[in-house]
Amino acid sequence: DGGITQSPKYLFRKEGQNVTLSCEQNLNHDAMYWYRQDPGQGLRLIYYSQIVNDFQKGDIAEGYSVSREKKESFPLTVTSAQKNPTAFYLCASRLRGRGPEQPPYEQYFGPGTRLTVT
Amino acid sequence: GQNIDQPTEMTATEGAIVQINCTYQTSGFNGLFWYQQHAGEAPTFLSYNVLDGLEEKGRFSSFLSRSKGYSYLLLKELQMKDSASYLCAESKDSGAGSYQLTFGKGTKLSVIP
Questions:
Q1: What angle do CA A113, A66, B101 make, to 5 degrees?
Q2: Which of A96, A94, A91 minimizes the C-alpha distance to A36?
Q3: Residue B99: beta bridge partners?
Q4: Which of chain A's residues have a Cβ under 8 Å away from the Cβ of B106?
Q5: Can you tell me whether residue B82 is helix, strand or coil?
Q6: Of the partner residues B41, B93, B106, the one whose CB lies closest to the CB of residue A42
Q7: A62, A113, B3, B42: most buried by Cβ count inside 10 Å?
Q8: Does an H or E element contain B33, and which?
Q9: Tens of pLDDT along B5-62?
Q10: Which residues sit opposite A90 in a β-bridge?
Q11: Residues of chain A by 3-state class (helix, strand, coil), percent to 5
């Protein structure tokens, strides 16, 4: 079955430790995204990648890092520099745009990882 | 979503119709998406509009007015399983075929018997 997987579903870490969240997709999607969701807040974009070996910062990239060495994989590292890392992290992917001035395809989301840092 | 406004909560009765409104900034607009998110789960895609008018998909319909920066999601024949958050998201072209979604904070819909 095609889809997006994130593991683990729940993750606990001590303050000061870096932690890497995995995101894998077998949909052959080009673009991948990382969001965080906090209670009462909308999804906020952390990083995104349109193609392998290229990625851009989103609205709240500080304290996070990513890599895109393979089309299928887009891991997110939450570093100790992130001041409020406890959140629900969602990975998404989509096909690249249909062309100039064409509407984009929808994003598909993974099940999410709930990270708790104490 | 600093540029997207939608009501925080709504309550409706099973079998009824409910309309969830969303306003957004029009500059750079490329499309308007609606997602459903049950508590603790990932958002799932419902619909998108790029042209003015109504798009119907079974019990769910979505409307767009580009000139007014306004959209709504219409849910008919409400069922208990429709209790969820509904996220409005605006798509903008950030260049070279790259698109970003800006999400609203979501509208939590409670369907009561």
A1: 70
A2: A91
A3: B93
A4: 42
A5: helix
A6: B106
A7: A113
A8: strand B29-37
A9: 999 999 999 999 999 999 998 777 778 999 999 998 999 999 999 899 999 989 999 9
A10: A35
A11: 0, 50, 50
